[in-house]
Amino acid sequence: MSPPAVSPPAVSPPAVSPPAAAGRRGSRLHRWLAGRTLRGRLIAGLVALLAVACAAVGLVTYLALRGFLFQQLDEQLMAAQQRYMACVQARGGPPPEG
Q1: Which of 38, 50, 59, 88 is 20 to 30 A distant from 15 in Cα terms?
Q2: 35 near 44, Cβ under 8 Å?
Q3: Cα(46)–Cα(21) distance, rounded to whole angstroms?
């Protein structure tokens, strides 16, 4: 017969106290959440997640549209410059000042 297996004693993790400010905020949030139903907490979580998703989509849209519009503006300015230079060369020089 083999000797019975000995399991190590259960050790609980050491208690770590959060900083004072974070502890107060955490306990306030915990108290607020504890007073809500599961439905209320789930709805609050989904609303927060929806707000973050909308902000992310808005930011990505803004950055993509901004880049596209600046590129389009650069192309239009280059075309206008080429038309101006062609006009100047056809007349034999720049228009008079003043």
Answers
A1: 38
A2: no
A3: 27
Residue 98 DSSP symbol: -
Residue 35 DSSP label:
T
Residue 20 pLDDT: 55
The tokens for 64 are 């993509």
pLDDT, tens digit (0-9, with 9 covering 90-100), for 25-55: 778 878 877 888 999 999 999 999 999 999 9
What does each C-alpha distance from 21 to 9, 27, 34 come to in angstroms? 35, 10, 20
Is the Cβ–Cβ distance between 88 and 94 less than 8 Å?
yes
- What is the DSSP secondary structure assignment for residue 37, as one 8-state letter? -
Q: Are 23 and 17 in contact (CB under 8 A)?
A: yes
| 79: its two tokens | 């075309």
Q: Tell me how far apart the alpha carbons of residues 81 and 89 are, in angstroms, rounded to a whole number.
A: 12
Structural tokens at position 53: 């998703």
Q: Which of 63, 81, 84, 85 is nearest to 73 (CA)?
A: 81
